[in-house]
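Form 7-S
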Amino acid sequence: MNISQEEIAIAFSNGEFDRTYPFLKEDIVWEIVGENTFKGKENVIANCKQTAEYFNSVETIFKIEDIIKSDNRIIIRGTAEFKKEGKRVNFIKACDVYEFDDEDKIINIYSYCIPEKK
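Output:
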């Protein structure tokens, strides 16, 4: 499968987690800054599945505002809006920093998620 680091990062940031599983390093670390840290592919996938359940329970609107590339790093900045029955239930400004190894596997993810104040 020929997929770029940028495409892998976009898929993950857009909640298309299952597309990214083959590109997760076994000892990956995903830090959701200020909330939680998941160590190891199995734990990252478990959190992805739990997060995907939430995404499937609401209408999700992801917008990418910026993509920055540098060596084996991809940074994606954007927003996530969640609606239920046509009403906004949550809005998040987010920045995901992906670090890849030389085999295009993700070794670290740092997610900064700032919810909109109501």
